[in-house]
Amino acid sequence: MTDLPLHPAIVHVPLGLAFVMPLVATALAWAIWWAKLPRGAFAIVAGLQLVLSVAGFVAIGLGHDDAEKAAAYTPTPAIEAHEEAAETFVWVSVGVLALSVATLFVPRSKAPILAAVVAAGTVAVTALAVDAGRKGGTLVFQYGAGSLARGQHAASPGEPGRPHHG
């Protein structure tokens, strides 16, 4: 069994889906708009959005555990910026999930419009995923948070990757 943190492994599920969802949602919204598929096909979007949101909450929970370990080596504001960006990403994904489920139940005439709104929402979720991922990458690559699990501290004292007090 490995002692590597689970957060980096799990976080790639919602991030990966965030990049795929605009394509899936746009394609299905187009198909529903032009009556190529029944609106029930949009359940695919709702299902994938559910996986994205649940995996996001799991990643946040695991990230909170890892943040305590990283706090000694990483400035608190950088950790908090990543946490806030991740929480925003996941909560907006929940909003898009709610809209995607609503698409299945609104009057048929409104479904294509709501499906288009969902497709646009998935683009916003992708932008938020990029922001959260970039801030997480800063923790790993600038401050050495990825070295924590291996007990390595490659940087010189006072540089990123070394104990930080403050």
Q: How many runs of DSSP E, i.e. beta strands?
A: 0
Estimate the strand proportion: under 5%
Mean pLDDT: 89
Q: With helices defined by DSSP (H or I, 4 residues minimum), what is the helix count?
A: 5
Largest sheet: none
* Form type: elongated
N-to-C terminal Cα separation, in Å?
34 Å
Q: Unreliable segments (pLDDT under 50, ≥5 consecutive)? A: 154-158
Question: Share of helix among residues?
Answer: 55-70%
- Based on secondary structure, the structural category is mainly alpha
Provide the succession of SSEs: HHHHH
Q: How much is the radius of gyration in Å?
A: 19 Å
Describe this structure in words.
There is one protein chain. The protein is mainly alpha-helical and 166 residues long. It has a domain at 41-145. It is 69% helix and 0% strand. It is built from 5 helices and no strands. It has helices at 7-10, 12-33, 43-70, 76-103, 111-142. Helix 2 (12-33) runs antiparallel to helix 3 (43-70), helix 2 (12-33) packs antiparallel against helix 5 and helix 4 (76-103) packs antiparallel against helix 5. The two termini are 34 Å apart.
